[in-house]
Amino acid sequence: MSASKARTFLFLGIGVFLVFLDQLTKELAVAALSDGSVMPVIGEILRFRLAYNAAAAFSLGVGQTWVLAIIACCAVLALLWFGPRAKNLTWTIIAGLVLGGAAGNLVDRLTRAPGFLNGHVVDFISIPFNFPIFNLADTFLVVGVSLAMLRTLLGDELGGKVGK
Question: Which among 101, 124, 136, 161 could disulfide-bond with 22, CB atoms 3.0 to 4.6 Å apart, if both were Cys?
Fold first, then answer.
């Protein structure tokens, strides 16, 4: 198997696994917390509390769920196109993280109530300091984008020579 095929399988494998993990944890959160309970994990530092988000991060785009779903669809399609063309293992992993995060929340927007393209994203991870409640898909996105920015700042530009 060529290196580019191996990177493609790794990219898709990471993305699929992270979507599975994200959706599994969301289903567990819905099952355990839909009665309004709060589950302390690490005292007041980390708690699980169920919330449904009809907006983007920090409540941006309230009432525009369908727009967010279309943007997410475009992002996932772009990642499926560019991810297999990552120039090295680092960018392959970063692309897989971003794909898993974007696709994880897109699944919610496509399949959850109130309906197709308008589904509310399940959030359940709560930390102090008035930080928004989030989920694993959000975490994968933040880590992936942060790593991409860091790699770019260190001179490893995504637009460099792309692997075949």
Answer: 136
| Catalytic annotation, residues | 123, 138
- Three-class SS of the chain: CCHHHHHHHHHHHHHHHHHHHHHHHHHHHHHHHCCCCEEEEECCCEEEEEEEECCCHHHCCCCCHHHHHHHHHHHHHHHHHHHHHCCCHHHHHHHHHHHHHHHHHHHHHHHCCCCCCCCCEEEEEECCCCCCCECHHHHHHHHHHHHHHHHHHCCCCCCCCCCC
Residue 143 covered by a domain = yes
**Do 109 and 76 meet the contact criterion of CB atoms below 8 Å apart?**
no
Q: How many domains does the structure of the chain reveal?
A: 1
Q: Tell me which residue has tokens 């942060």.
A: 146
118 belongs to a structural domain = yes
Tens of pLDDT along 70-80? 999 999 999 99
Contact 44, 125 (CB under 8 A): no
Regarding pTM above 0.85, the answer is: yes
Q: For residue 125, what are the β-bridge partners?
A: 48, 134
pLDDT band at 160 (very low <50, low <70, confident <90, very high): low
Residue 16 falls inside a structural domain: yes
